[in-house]
Design brief:
two-stranded antiparallel ribbon, about 150 residues, binds zinc ion, 5 strands, Arc Repressor Mutant, subunit A, alpha+beta
């Protein structure tokens, strides 16, 4: 797999998300440690839906004592707490997303690139009542698999 170039979320958005992150943690009585905040910020900055390892690699120069296992544990707990989202991809490595807003993912099966896609028809897919019987749908996680523009060539 070729490495996916880092595309960055605009700094003002990252700053706002980090503020909201801290406020949510405080409201829930969850401690905001420098490590948790650094991991969240690194994920919020990165539009590529990185793996835990990629987040760790970006933080390593600034936080040399941080281990990949710690970054993974932090991302797992943020996912459980609903503060980040785990993205389903085609290969085994878990990818993470700080964007909690309604959106879906285009996944390239060749290079593994993951891109956000927002389309209103994808957020209210016509699920038949019988199909979900008694189940309250809270979120749709749709993975659209194919080949990105670069890999089609
Ligand atoms: Zn591709
Ligand atoms: Zn996403």
């Amino acid at each position: 797999m070729t490495p996916v170039p880092v595309s960055r979320r605009p700094a003002p958005d990252v700053a706002r998300w980090c503020d909201e992150f801290e406020a949510t943690c405080r409201a829930r009585g969850v401690r905001v440690t420098p490590q948790r905040l650094a991991v969240y910020r690194a994920l919020a900055e990165d539009l590529s839906h990185p793996t835990a390892e990629a987040v760790w690699a970006r933080l390593r120069p600034r936080m040399p004592s941080l281990s990949p296992a710690t970054v993974y544990r932090i991302l797992e707990s943020l996912d459980r707490e609903g503060l980040v989202r785990r993205v389903s991809v085609t290969d085994g490595a878990g990818r993470f997303d700080a964007n909690r807003g309604p959106h879906q993912h285009l996944v390239c099966r060749v290079c593994g690139r993951v891109r956000d896609v927002r389309d209103p028809t994808l957020t209210r897919v016509g699920l038949g009542r019988d199909a979900v019987r008694g189940f309250t749908v809270e979120e749709l996680d749709i993975r659209i698999v194919g080949r990105c523009g670069r890999c089609r060539k």
